[in-house]
Amino acid sequence: MKILCAGPTSISPEVLNALSKSKTNPDLDPEYQVFHRSVEKKISKLLNTEATSFFMLGEGIMGLEAAIISLVEPQDRVLVLSNGFFGAGFADYVKFAGGTPVVLEFDFRNGIDVNKLDEFLQQDSNFKLATFVHCETPSGLTNNLNEIVSTLKKYNLLTIADCVSSLGGEAIDFDKSGLDVLLGGSQKCISAPVGITIVTISDRAKKAIDDRKTPVNSYYMNFKNYYDFKEAPFCYTMNENLIYAMDIALEQLFNRNSIELHKTYADITREIIQSAGLELYAKNCPSNTVTAVLMPNEIEAECLLKLMRQKDIAISKGLGNMSEKLFRIGHMGQNISKDNFKALFKALDECFKELGIELKISLYDSFCKKIGEV
């Protein structure tokens, strides 16, 4: 099966081989501790920062909830920016922590409007922090991280960004952005196995945790136990195998000029899709990691996905109320290769024909021209 969905992504043989390694006892071996921290520093390198990065053992959503648990106290007001399925989800985590979420909704087909955000904050800026999603994979949107954070910082809000689907695929400069907490996952653009939450945190956010009036209502989800744990190297038993795999995956990412590669395949995919007469869901701020496309003629997305699976190709459909109205292509991580995309577009040509949809051009022929094979 060729994996071309919105994640998890394909994993290279070298990364899978590293996953099979078991070398030591990570709880007791001081050399492992040094190695583990060196891999965490590669995340900071990816983000052009000296700020602290650390791993948590759990899928990326865990980091989103842990950020709220670590920073939000009862009765804290939190501004939740939502222009997609995952943006609104932060409100639930805020409620779990005893805080009060205020959801500011934006159009799901457009990037977050910083002018609307600024107008809102002029009327009400009494928030401890704000949350948003950098790349909304269900919508195929990547919000302008720098502009959003700059607007929020005018009102002295702490900022938390879900970068699970953008880390490694979109250019991010943590220091330049001014972001306080960046949250990522192992299984998207980095193409490591599922199971690691990635966190990069500013000194400002650390101080906010130190200055809490109430204790963090969790042990495992308390960020401070990961960057400032005193009793032992780690507050839990780390999975060394996942970290060996992460290390190789990060080295492969650096070696393949990941940011430019994602942009190149995103540009080609969007151009071909639109030339064929199909409509992108995102009207602006399109993502470089995933493209969402409206299903033509009110055909349900599952009909297309089923045909694609029969051709050994995995793509995604939408989420929520757009579940059957969109199909999504993940040009993300190890998914990206000429052979994968030739197979993808050939299969899409055939499947649309089977569904009675006449495209203006052949997706396959257009892709081959773009890469110089025709």
Task: Please tell me about this protein's structure.
With 374 residues, the chain is of the alpha/beta class. Helix content is 40%, strand content 16%. The chain has 14 helices and 14 strands. The protein has helices spanning 13-19, 30-46, 61-71, 85-96, 114-123, 145-153, 174-177, 203-210, 224-227, 240-255, 258-275, 301-310, 338-354, 363-370, and strands at 2-3, 52-57, 77-82, 100-105, 129-133, 135-136, 141-142, 158-162, 181-185, 196-201, 290-294, 313-314, 316-317, 326-330. Strands 2-10-9-8-5-3-4 form a seven-stranded mixed beta sheet, with helices on both faces. A three-stranded antiparallel beta sheet has the order 11-14-13, covered by helices on one side. A two-stranded parallel sheet has the order 1-12. Strand 13 (316-317) and strand 14 form a beta hairpin. Helix 1 (13-19) runs antiparallel to helix 10 (240-255), helix 2 packs parallel to helix 10 and helix 5 (114-123) runs parallel beside helix 6 (145-153). It is globular and about 60 Å long. The two termini are 26 Å apart. The model has no long low-confidence stretch (mean pLDDT 96).
